[in-house]
Specification:
Elements (H helix, E strand, L loop, with lengths): L2 H23 L1 E7 L11 E9 L3 E8 L7 E9 L4 E5 L3 E2 L16 E6 L9 E14 L4 E16 L2 H20 L2 E2 L8 E3 L3 E3 L6 E2 L21 H4 L6 H17 L15
Length: 273
């Protein structure tokens, strides 16, 4: 065998060896299962929180709605209205202690991960968007392409400055004081009912009652509102008062200041209560 033939043969051998090694010992998640009622429910996951930190990193929290957990992320990008764009992942990669050989022992839900980036952090008052593909229910019995369920998520967040946060909270408190000064109780105060336009508006007054309403006209132990914003005494069967509205406002304060949904690391079910 001459030198040229040897080089060609050796190159082909190395090439096929690398392919074989990758297929045998390497793998990556692939969203081969489409949306199906029984197998892959594509509304299973949601991004509950994303924070652009001052050290040029993004904290993002993904939560399942059915007790599952994320096993891989892929096609992860971020952009902001100030013109900054960054792509974290082009190809999917395992997360949550999962790897080619199977699921890890320390899977958690919600799952929060941190991603460093190089673009300048936009100033307060700027919107930013995150797109993320989540993989779950992976079949680790397959090689190379690990068959998973996959769904694409989008999250849009408004980056508030401290001045903006305090300004909005002051206005919300003034609106709530106006409601309570008129001897009314909102009974369903949460961030979803706060409209920020030219002015702050507290909306959805469908459950409001006067402070002197007759409790006997309602079903016994009836609880209204969104669970994380509901005052503990209401969950214990007591009646709604102005204090319950103030408790809900306190949860809103926490959410605006921290940037985290209330009790974001807990499933909101009967055990949470």
């Amino acid at each position: 065998m001459n030198q040229k033939s040897f080089i060609i043969t050796f190159t082909l051998f190395v090439f096929f060896f690398l392919i074989y090694s990758e297929k045998t010992y390497g793998c990556h998640p692939a969203g081969l299962n489409g949306c199906d009622k029984d197998v892959c429910k594509c509304d299973t996951f949601s991004i509950t929180d994303a924070n652009m930190l001052s050290n040029k990193s993004l904290n993002i929290t993904v939560k399942s709605n059915d007790g599952s957990h994320s096993q891989a992320f892929g096609h992860f990008t971020m952009s902001d209205d100030a013109g900054g764009k960054y792509r974290f992942l082009k190809n999917p990669r395992f997360v949550n202690d999962c790897e080619c050989k199977g699921e890890g022992p320390n899977t958690v839900d919600p799952y929060t991960s941190n991603w460093p980036y190089t673009i300048d952090t936009p100033p307060g008052g700027t919107w930013f968007d995150a797109w993320l593909t989540v993989y779950w229910k992976c079949d680790f019995g397959t090689l190379y392409d690990v068959d998973c369920c996959a769904t694409a998520l989008h999250y849009r967040e408004y980056k508030l400055s401290w001045r903006d946060k305090l300004y909005h909270l002051l206005n919300i408190s003034c609106r709530l004081q106006h409601i309570n000064d008129n001897e009314l109780i909102h009974r369903d105060l949460h961030v979803g009912n706060i409209i920020i336009d030219d002015n702050i508006i507290i909306s959805d007054m469908g459950l409001y009652k006067p402070t002197y309403y007759n409790v006997s006209t309602e079903t016994e132990n009836n609880v209204y509102g969104v669970l994380p914003y509901t005052a503990p005494e209401i969950l214990l069967g007591q009646i709604y008062t102005k204090a319950a509205d103030i408790y809900s406002f306190g949860i809103i304060m926490y959410e605006v200041i921290s940037g985290l949904p209330p009790y974001h690391d807990l499933i909101h079910d009967e055990y949470f209560v």
